[in-house]
Design a protein that fits this description.
The structure holds two protein chains of two kinds. Chain A is of the alpha+beta class. Chain A is built from eleven helices and 33 strands. Helices cover 23% and strands 42% of the residues of chain A. The model of chain A is unreliable at 1-9 and 600-605 (pLDDT under 50). Classes of the chains: A alpha+beta, B mainly alpha.
């Protein structure tokens, strides 16, 4: 059997090597301590560790792929047993260097490598216990951030005794709680207990309209978008006769008021415009002078307003979307690249733009009001009547009967009155929603109840992440909050500017550049910083701080394509950094010395 | 006889003029998907994007990509009925109500498919709700088909043929009334070379009249045209294959060995040239996607083999490296749909030459060293299967290759941690790519430590070198194409799974056979069987 130890041994004389082997065998016979060291540093143990860690990691990656990252981390990477296993690895690595004692020159690479791994792992443990990872979302128009969101779920309990807030680490998504295996938290300073016994990854707040004798007129509206698969229920109340106005995703406004306004006469006409012919000009009752021209290949639409200013659009981008032109609204309702009448209906002969034609609707507003489109509802004799307004003109009106949805003209949204109650109130209940499809994230939370001695138990309630819920056992109230931990930092951070340069001719970002300003909380000193991709900003950012990791580092993490004033930075504070660095260096240098730092004599036969 | 020659002479110019010479157009710069490229590359990529190959047959005539794309752009009529758009997914073919015996369909066939339209709507609805949503395979295929349709639409409308440097951020297509376009159209329609060339000259003049700040670098464009026509990586595998054949047939004779060296060096030079061109064109290290890494690993394997050959002059290194390099390069050459060779802008995190050259080159070179070890191990195991006992030195060569791999993989993985510390804000967070690099490293360490412990000997090391390489396959291909989660998402792709699985199964069968032959104890003296 020729192994590496003997290959190494060739450098020595055979006699010396034999004497050394005898000495090592001898000390194991006479000393229990040496026997333990040799056992802890044995190759058998090393092989078991290497294989089990590799297999555990492989299992974890498949777990992550079929479930999610959190579960893989909770059960393997960050589970206590895995940590214990890594500790055993450290012990094994340390003990094996002792078994070679007294060290000789040929052991240099071997020792540096093995101590390098230990140093790296110690650095990792220090980083895990004394450092933290988190993120912070900054916005140009918002005040500076002084807290970092840490990747750790906690609950905050407000004790009824002293109103102090108590923080406990708890991640409901990986705790595996169930009715048979609940998790119990003692409310500090009391004999009360909080029992958490169910988890949901998709909590929804359901607002419903309930009859209430002291209530006011109320209507429950359901808005649906088949294309987006969205379904929203919206209860509206007529409080004290004042209109209730709701903003609908920034798309439109919905108003519930005591009576509908007088319809505003607008004027609307529909015309066919051909790419190869002259533009159409609005010629309705009160001509607006708006002209619409389709380009010869059908790809562009030019809209000329009454004041002779014109704008050209890509037709595909404005299909079925109302385009304002002065006081008028132009909508391209339909398009045929190769227009032809077929059995009395417009159709296209081919997909090629041989005879492009578009159906155009031009609407003019009576009063010329601008702003978002709106839906106005009012209680009437036959139920609820509605009006759709656009640019101040009434586009549609009617009576909304339960079960009869009507189109709103905002993308493909439809509205339907579910119920109308003359005397109503709104009740809000948080409860688990339907299971989510893969890759979508809802609001997580857990079910909790307050228990007092003698097992008097209060009503269970769902505690939503990012919200505060009040639990009661019938007599006392305990407020409980759940969510990611917010950690204060000794400085504040303001986003001065955020740039997203793009690759030429595309919308693909080529970099993300956040200019920030740090303000030291103690001294008030200001310091600028720039976080680019691969080039983090750091605070305090001195050479010493960067080297040791006693430093807050801000790397670009996420951006919001819809709001370029906003960016999310990943925050790292890692006091184990220096040890990780040294350990890494040791591993690489050590392996190189082991493989290439000795005479090659023995190896080539 | 004389008459025939005269006739031929008369015919010759006519023959050449029948097909319009478009080589002038091939070198015209176009700005597309984030960079400026020659029309030739634009056409190749557009065709590859639509059909999965660079030529198409129309009316019984085979058209190269420039001819076809120019046709769609200048004379779109009729192209909507040419089966161009690739749809491989059998399920999608069924859902879209397509003829399942074909793989390519015309634009009008697909535009009229209700099933496809429904799937496309589903895809866009899902994406509108969550841009990162993981789509169902059929929906994903439909979305891909939608993208191919968009490429076609962009070409026939001329919208994506952005030829005029009107701005650094975005170039513009030629206007509908552009005189150059009219001449090009006229020349193309009537096969009139003079008119076509006049249009080309007008186009060049129009390009030159725009702001010089936005112009393409003519040197780079010329280099890319040359690179695109040269196919250096194809030449490389042909030359490596020659080297391998010469090695096989010239057992031990020096002239044969030298000739093999010559072929290998020539192939190596071709690969080197290919990389130099890619670096000039893209301005970055050539290891940013699966295609580049496959080609690079082939390069690294040959590099290590040549270095070791120079030291040991053993033949085994080249014999081990050649099959690995040839198979990798043939895969890269023939599977353009899975291994996309186009040069695209990088996601911001990758656009950093320092880390690309340190971390990525080290990691991929470690793959190369392990691939060489795999090749050498195959020779050893192959000898055992054939009944000869491999020489001790062969195992020593294997050990040398493994050493290089372990050192580079350790360095590369750690460099990855250091990079991640700067880019993602943490050193190590069990990202699948990180984790599989670690698993591979642990696997090879297990192999080496087990040998020191005397658990297995030389034969075990050869078996282990083949088995442990499967973890490299997982780290390299599996994480990106099978697991599909984690932060290394820029390398994700689909396809090739049956090939990868087949490779793994074949390796396992090979090992089983070697173990069986070893245990049955047939060992004839060396040289009795095989070479």
């Amino acid at each position: 059997m020729r192994d590496l130890a003997t290959v190494e041994g060739r450098a020595m004389s055979a006699g010396e090597a034999a004497a050394r082997r005898r000495m090592i065998a001898e000390r194991q016979k006479t000393s229990l301590a040496w026997r333990v060291i040799h056992w802890l540093g044995s190759l058998q143990l090393a092989l078991i560790l290497l294989s089990t860690i590799a297999i555990a990691c492989a299992v974890a990656t498949f777990t992550e792929s079929s479930f999610n990252t959190k579960i893989a981390q909770a059960y393997i990477y960050k589970a206590p047993w895995f940590l214990v296993w890594l500790t055993v690895l450290c012990v094994n690595l340390f003990a094996v260097t002792l078994t070679r004692w007294p060290w000789q020159k040929k052991h240099t690479g071997f020792i540096i490598t093995h101590y390098g791994i230990i140093t790296l792992l110690i650095g990792a443990i220090i980083g895990m216990n004394f450092g933290f990872e988190g993120n912070v979302t900054l916005h140009k128009d918002k005040p500076p951030a002084t807290k970092i969101t840490v990747n750790r779920s906690i609950i905050q309990v407000e004790s009824p005794v002293d109103s102090a807030l108590y923080v406990m680490a708890f991640d409901a998504s990986t705790a595996g709680i169930s009715e048979s295996r609940p998790r119990v938290f003692q409310v500090p300073g009391t004999s009360l207990k909080i029992v958490a016994d169910a988890f949901s990854d998709n909590l929804v707040k359901e607002q419903s309209l309930v009859p209430n004798d002291n209530g006011v007129p109320g209507v429950l509206l359901r808005l649906t978008s088949p294309r987006m698969g969205q379904n929203v229920e919206l209860p509206l109340l007529l409080q004290g006769g004042t209109p209730q106005e709701e903003d609908f995703f920034g798309l439109a406004t919905i108003v519930f008021q005591s009576a509908l306004p007088e319809p505003v006469a607008g004027d609307s006409e529909t015309q066919m415009v051909f790419g190869k012919f002259a533009p159409v000009v609005h010629s309705g009752e009160n001509p607006s002078g708006v002209g619409v021209l389709l380009s010869e290949d059908g790809s562009k639409v030019t809209i000329r307003s009454a004041d002779q200013t014109s704008a050209t659009y890509l037709r595909e981008e404005i299909m079925k979307k109302p385009v304002p032109a002065g006081t008028a609204i132009v909508t391209i309702e339909d398009y045929w690249p190769d227009f032809q009448m077929q059995s009395g209906k417009p159709a296209t002969k081919s997909p090629l733009p041989n005879n492009p034609a578009a159906l155009v609707r031009i609407q003019t507003a009576g009063s010329g009001g601008a702003g978002k489109p709106s839906l106005v509802l009012a209680p009437g004799k036959e139920g609820v009547s509605f009006q759709l307004l656009r640019s101040g003109a009434t586009v549609a009106s009617g009576v909304a009967k339960p079960g009869e949805p009507f189109a709103l003209g905002w993308a493909d949204w439809q509205a339907e009155v579910v119920s109308f109650l003359p005397k109503a109130g709104v009740a809000s209940v948080t409860k688990p929603g339907p299971p989510l499809p893969d890759g979508e994230h809802g609001i997580p939370g857990f079910r909790a109840r307050l228990e007092s001695p003698g097992n008097r138990s209060g009503e269970p309630r769902w505690v939503e992440s990012g919200d505060i819920t009040t639990l009661t056992d019938g007599t006392r109230l305990v407020r409980i909050g759940y969510g990611l931990e917010l950690r204060p930092v000794p400085f504040s951070l303001r986003l001065v500017d955020f740039e997203v340069p793009r690759y030429e001719g595309t919308e693909t970002p080529s970099n993300f550049i956040a200019s920030v300003e740090f303000t030291d909380a103690k001294t008030g000193e200001k310091k600028p910083g720039t976080a680019r991709m691969n080039h983090p900003a750091s605070f305090p950012g001195t050479l010493w701080a960067n080297l040791t990791g006693f430093n807050y580092k801000f790397s670009q993490a996420e951006w919001n394509p819809r709001d370029l004033g906003e960016t999310t930075l990943q925050v790292l504070y890692d006091p184990g950094w220096l040890l990780k660095w040294l350990g890494s260096l040791g591993i690489c240098v050590g392996i190189a010395i082991m493989f290439y730092g000795k005479p090659r004599s023995g190896a080539s036969h | 006889m004389r008459r025939t020659i005269l006739f031929l002479l008369f015919l010759l110019p006519h023959l050449t003029s029948a097909a319009l010479d478009m080589s002038g157009l091939a070198a015209v710069p176009v700005q597309e998907s984030g960079r400026k490229k020659p029309f030739l590359v634009f056409a190749d990529e557009a065709m590859m994007g639509m059909t999965g190959r660079t030529s198409v047959e129309r009316d019984g005539k085979k058209l190269a990509s420039v001819e076809a794309v120019t046709g769609m752009w200048l004379a779109p009529a009729g192209w909507e009925n040419v089966p161009l758009i690739l749809i491989n997914d059998k399920k999608l073919q069924e859902r879209a109500g397509l003829d399942r015996t074909r793989k390519r369909y015309s634009y009008s066939e697909l535009a009229s498919s209700e099933g496809l339209r429904a799937l496309l709507q589903e895809a866009s609805a899902l994406r509108a709700k969550n841009p990162k949503a993981k789509l169902d395979p059929v929906v994903k295929s439909a979305a891909d088909a939608g993208m191919r349709l968009a490429v076609f639409e962009g070409l026939v409308s001329g919208r994506t043929v952005t030829l005029l440097p009107t701005g650094a951020a975005a170039w513009s297509p030629l206007g509908e009334n552009d005189p150059a376009l009219a001449k090009l159209r006229g020349g193309f329609a009537s096969d009139d070379q003079a008119s076509f060339d006049a249009g080309l000259a007008a186009l060049r003049a129009e390009q030159a009249s725009e702001n010089p700040r936005f112009q393409a670098d003519p040197g780079k464009i010329a280099a890319e045209v040359f690179y695109q026509r040269l196919h250096p990586f194809r030449w490389a595998w042909i030359l490596y294959l020659c080297a391998g054949i010469v090695l096989m047939v010239s057992a031990g004779r020096t002239p044969g060995y030298l000739l093999a060296w010559g072929f290998a060096l020539a192939g190596f030079g071709m690969q080197l040239a290919g990389f130099v061109f890619r670096i000039i064109i893209s301005g970055r290290a050539p290891v940013t996607n699966m295609y580049e890494s496959v080609v690079w690993v082939a390069f690294g394997t040959i590099l290590f083999a040549l270095v070791f050959e120079a030291i040991h002059r053993s033949r085994y290194f080249l014999m081990g490296a050649v099959p690995v390099a040839v198979v990798s390069l043939i895969l890269a050459d023939t599977q353009p749909v899975i291994l996309d060779r186009s040069i695209r802008p990088l996601v911001p995190v990758l656009a950093d030459n320092f880390w690309l050259t340190t971390h990525v080159l080290t990691i991929t070179l470690s793959y190369a060293a392990f691939a060489l070890a795999l090749g050498v191990a195959h020779i050893a195991l192959g000898k055992i299967i054939l009944g000869t006992k491999p020489a001790k030195s062969l195992y020593n060569y294997l050990y040398r290759a493994l050493q290089v791999g372990v050192l580079l993989l350790a360095i590369g993985t750690i460099l990855g941690g250091v990079w991640a510390n700067y880019s993602w804000g943490r050193f190590w967070d069990w990202d699948p790519k990180e984790t599989w690099a670690l698993i591979a490293l642990l696997g090879y360490l297990f192999l080496l430590h087990g040998r020191i412990a005397g658990k297995w000997g030389d034969f075990g090391m050869a078996v282990g070198a083949v088995l442990a390489f499967q973890s490299i396959i997982m780290a390299w291909y599996g994480v990106n194409f099978v697991l599909g989660v984690g932060l290394h998402s820029y390398g994700f792709g689909t396809g090739g799974f049956p090939v990868a699985l087949g490779f793994v199964l074949a390796e396992i069968a090979f090992i089983a056979l070697a173990v069986f032959r070893k245990n049955s104890g047939i060992a004839r003296p060396q040289g009795a069987v095989g070479a």
